[in-house]
Design a protein that fits this description.
By secondary structure, the protein is α/β, with parallel strands linked by helices. The protein has one domain: TIM Barrel (Alpha-Beta Barrel). Helix content is 33%, strand content 13%. The chain is built from 14 helices and eleven strands. The protein starts with 24 loop residues before the first helix and ends with a helix.
Length: 420
């Protein structure tokens, strides 16, 4: 982890510092210290909501679904419905379905090719519409369906030549950065931010999804000994910022801010209610780095390492909900669940942003995990602890495969203790 020798720059602390011509200082910060007005993502904020009981359904590399690429449509559909049935049987009420895992699509997108995880070949039509099916069948089961999109990840390999010839990363090589053996879009390019928004807003407009959901990948997690190659975009657009880190954080905020405004526009135009949320790594900053941070000693901090100022997004009201991935057990020394949850509860208090807690069901019973995870009651204790905080509006479990199979019995214990 990088050592921080002084409190890092934040947009709210910038005051009258010079921005690049056209930089929206008024939109970025209220210099009185109060949160600036911000676009509201979904319609109907402020109405009482039932507790959210969700699961993530991951498709990248076939993590939860499909079991293998190239399944016949009937078999792939049957597997998907089995996972939705499991969510309903466990008395969940929301599914976060990963429909854009690597700058591709699980629906007939006019912007990006079909995902290789469906057929084994990027760009090949699977013969059916997984997102359309998931929305329809989730609603039949009383489940919300949130379209989960990864904004900037292009491929889990580093060879653009392996992408489909029609892929935007092939047609716009200047957009792409190789880093850590993978390919990413450069978040510093305005045309990239606009394009990725166009891509996932297509799903929001065309399908009756209940939400648009981002995971924790904005700028990629740090890779030792490597530098993310955005020199050209920083030279073009980084003027007026005190350093590259501040500029990167502004790029990430622009993505969130602009997406929120565009989701809100869809809601106004259609009369629908679509909620916009993010599930970040759970440590904004350690207290040793910033007095406002959590009492943790995490090796990654979203503010410093992923250039995502999640606390600020909440204070500005850019999100309908936040679902931090609190993937540690009660009593974990470096990042104790019992310390992180109260910090997030204080952070969202009186903001109008709903707080859901991401839960590491995948760790339950894993022999590689510490002793607390061998106890099937660990996750149930999480929910008992979180119930002390009225700001906690629910939990999301990672991930669908474990919700369905429940090898340790941890999910059954949660349902018996909390979802009866």
């Amino acid at each position: 982890m990088r050592r921080i020798t002084r409190r890092s720059f934040t947009v709210a602390a910038l005051g009258a510092a010079a921005w690049r011509t056209g930089g929206p200082v008024a939109a970025a910060a209220d210099l009185s210290g109060r949160p600036a007005p911000a676009p509201r993502a979904g319609a109907g904020r402020g109405r009482p909501r039932p507790a959210l009981r969700g699961m993530w359904l991951a498709t990248v590399a076939g993590r939860d679904w499909p079991s293998r690429p190239g399944l016949p449509p009937a078999a792939a559909r049957r597997e998907l419905l089995t996972l939705l049935d499991a969510a309903a049987d466990r008395r969940l009420n929301a599914v976060f379905f990963q429909v854009r895992p690597t700058a591709d699509a699980l629906w007939p997108s006019p912007y990006e090719p079909w995902s290789e995880y469906l057929t084994g070949h990027q760009g090949r039509d699977p013969g059916w519409d997984p997102l359309g099916c998931a929305v329809r069948e989730a609603h039949r089961r009383g489940l919300e369906l949130h379209a989960w999109c990864n904004p900037y990840r292009v491929a889990l390999h580093g060879d653009p030549g392996r992408l489909h010839p029609s892929h935007p990363a092939r047609r716009h090589p200047r957009w792409v950065v190789r880093y850590g053996g993978k390919l990413y879009y450069d978040p510093g390019l305005p045309e990239v931010r606009r394009f990725v928004q166009d891509a996932f807003l297509d799903a929001v407009r065309r399908y009756r999804v209940d939400g648009l959901h981002f995971d924790d990948y904005f700028y990629p997690y740090p890779v030792a000994g490597e530098t993310f190659g955005d020199d050209a975009s920083y030279a073009a657009y980084g003027g007026g910022f005190p350093d590259r880190a501040a500029w990167r954080r502004w790029n990430t905020e622009l993505l969130v801010r602009e997406t929120a405004a565009r989701v809100a526009a869809v809601c106004r135009a259609t009369g629908r209610r679509v909620r916009f949320g993010v599930s970040p790594f759970a440590v904004w900053r350690n207290r040793a780095t910033d007095p406002a941070g959590s009492d943790t000693r995490a090796g990654v901090q979203t503010y410093d390492d992923l250039y995502a100022d999640t606390r600020r997004w909440v204070r500005l009201g850019l999100l309908d909900y936040l679902a931090p991935q609190v993937y540690w057990h009660l009593g974990f020394e470096a990042a104790d669940y019992a310390r992180i949850v109260p910090w997030w509860a204080r952070t969202v208090a009186d903001t109008g942003v709903d707080l859901y807690l991401g839960e590491a069901l995948h760790k339950a019973g894993d022999p590689a995990q510490p002793a607390p995870w061998q106890d099937p009651a660990e996750l149930s204790r999480h929910l008992t602890f979180a119930h002390r905080y009225p700001q906690v509006g629910g939990h999301v479990f990672f991930a669908a495969k474990e919700v369905a199979a429940d090898p340790s019995g941890a999910m059954a214990r949660v349902v018996a203790d909390h979802y009866r």
